[in-house]
Structures are given as C-alpha cells and as structure tokens.
C-alpha cells in the first residue's frame, strides 16, 4: 500500500512538473518529415511557425526538416521535438518503441470525406509497364524505410498481387531518399516503378488532389502526361499530428484546438503545410492505427 502511495505521489509530481514546464515553454520544436526538398518544406511551414508563436506566445518556434523519417522519429522519442505530422508507419515506429512517447491528436480529411489515402505505383508511359505484374524483372523504388505508402504497404501488399516477394519479383529494389526523390528517380530512369503517397481522387493530370505526386506536378518538377499509374494499394489511414505526451493534457488540448481552427484561420497556410486539397483536420485516437502497428510489427519488427 505504501509503495502504491509513493508511486502515485511521484506520478502526480511528474505530471505537475511536466505541465508547469509546458506552460513555461519558450521554444516549440516542430519536426518535418523528409519527402520534399528542404527549402520547400521550410517555406511551407514558416506560416505555421508564425501562427504558433503568435497564438502561444513562444519566444521561438524552431523548424527541423529531417533528412529522413527516422530523424523525426528519434527526435520525438528523445524528447528533442515537441510536435510533428507523421505517416501511419512512422507513428507505428514510435509507438512500438515507446507507446507513451507521443499522443496522436488529429488527422487530415480528404475532399471525399475519407480519412485515408493510397500508395500508388508510378511508371513512365514509355516503359511499357501497364500494371504491377508487367513490371516483373524491373527496378522498384521505395521512398523511406519509415514511410507507410513509400515502403511498408508496398512491401506487404504488392506480393499479394504478384505472388512473390518484392526482392524476388523485381530485379532490384532501392530507397531513394524520400517521396519526391522517388518520383524523380522514375523520371530520370534510375528506377522503373516508384511507390508514393496519393489521395487517389481527382484528376491524374493534376497529380490527384494531394500527396507527393500532386506536389511535384504542381511545382512543375514532372509532367503527369509522362506517367501512368500501374498499382494502387488498399486505403491507408491518414497519418496523425502528434504531440510529445510529456507536454501534458492541457497543452495537448490547446494544440488540438489550434490546428482544428487553422484551415479556417489561414487556408493557404493549411494547404501549404499539407501539400494539397483537404477539407480540414478531425480528431484521431491511437487505435485508428492498430492495423498499421500490427503490419509494421509483422513485416519489419518495428
């Protein structure tokens, strides 16, 4: 009984200390996943940093564009980042290492009302590849080891259609340093098929309504007329906005309210951060990602 009382007192003290620390925060640290080039990521997130600073009175909002997904994952686990928007597999990576490290608060809603997206396979029209089975013996490009659509889902779902592991079905597989680089690798002939994230809705000539293909088409880095979609996954849960749990319930709730209002307060900023056409954010709980946590645990052991 005495030990329980001591443990309870220590827990309450730790929580109170954490909340006091959160209330006195002078710097808020935002992790930004790899995918686009660093310049574009920083430019798209600057308006968010400005809004956070004004809303919460932080002396400084620091933006950390990681070179790869794992940089953000490790920052959240190590307590050197306070907030990030993760892919579902990136969240699963954090959760499997420390289920209490971060709290998922919101996720994006697509224009069709869904809270999911797709992994799509893209190839050049000139390659002659029309579907994933016709890519046998070709080169497959992945985005990042912690990417849901750019690795975990294609790793586990493509073999269901080809009847063989990706390592044996394709001549080779390789990581290309993020989603944008993966699409550019197809454009430049370094791989034959690239798997990337996409809303999968809207017009292909616009790169659909959101996702990396949409981003690179919108800024003129690729011509969609040069590409063809050769594979599509099942629906994937949209990734969560996560807050470092140690910031406490009060700060977490305030951040959830802030982001929920962002699309109405500054639509251009919201669209810049999210890189496409979404309707807004909706609340999300950890169990929304159970299927991805289990898939990651089974496929790559966390």
Automatic annotation (TrEMBL):
Signal peptide residue numbers: 1-22
Q: Does the keyword Oxidoreductase apply?
A: no
Q: Which Gene3D superfamilies match?
A: Periplasmic binding protein-like II
Keywords for this protein: Signal
UniProt name for this protein: Phosphonate ABC transporter substrate-binding protein
Family, as annotated: Belongs to the phosphate/phosphite/phosphonate binding protein family.
One Gene Ontology cellular component annotation held by this UniProt entry: ATP-binding cassette (ABC) transporter complex
Q: Which sequence ranges form a coiled-coil region, renumbered to this chain?
A: none
Show the Pfam families listed in the entry: Phosphonate-bd
Q: Which GO terms describe its biological process?
A: organic phosphonate transport; transmembrane transport
Annotated gene: phnD
Enumerate the InterPro entries for this protein.
Answer: PhnD, Phosphnate-bd
């Amino acid at each position: 009984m005495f030990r329980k009382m001591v443990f309870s007192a220590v827990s309450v003290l730790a929580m109170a200390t954490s909340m006091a620390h959160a209330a006195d925060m002078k710097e808020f640290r935002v992790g930004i996943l790899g995918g686009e080039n660093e310049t574009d990521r920083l430019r798209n997130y600057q308006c968010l940093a400005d809004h956070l600073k004004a809303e919460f009175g932080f002396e400084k909002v620091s933006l950390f564009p990681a070179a790869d997904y794992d940089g953000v994952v490790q920052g959240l686990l190590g307590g050197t980042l306070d907030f990030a928007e993760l892919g579902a597999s990136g969240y699963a990576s954090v959760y499997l290492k420390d289920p209490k490290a971060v709290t998922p608060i919101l996720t994006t809603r697509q224009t069709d009302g869904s809270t999911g997206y797709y992994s799509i396979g893209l190839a050049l029209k000139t390659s002659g590849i029309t579907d994933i089975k016709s890519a046998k013996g070709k080169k497959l490009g992945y985005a990042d080891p912690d990417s849901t659509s750019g690795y975990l889902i294609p790793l586990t779902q493509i073999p269901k259609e080809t009847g063989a592991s990706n390592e044996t079905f394709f001549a080779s597989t390789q990581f290309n340093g993020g989603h944008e680089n993966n699409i550019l690798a197809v454009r430049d002939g370094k791989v034959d098929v690239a798997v990337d994230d996409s809303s999968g809705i809207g017009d292909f000539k616009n790169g659909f309504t959101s996702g990396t293909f949409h981003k690179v088409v919108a800024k003129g880095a690729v011509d969609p007329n040069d590409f063809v979609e050769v594979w599509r996954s099942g629906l994937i849960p949209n990734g969560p906005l996560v807050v470092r749990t140690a910031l406490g319930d009060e700060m977490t709730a305030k951040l959830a309210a802030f982001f929920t209002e962002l699309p109405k307060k500054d639509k251009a900023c919201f669209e810049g951060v999210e890189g496409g056409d979404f309707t807004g954010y909706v609340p999300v709980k950890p169990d929304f990602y159970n299927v991805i946590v289990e898939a990651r645990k089974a496929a790559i052991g966390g």
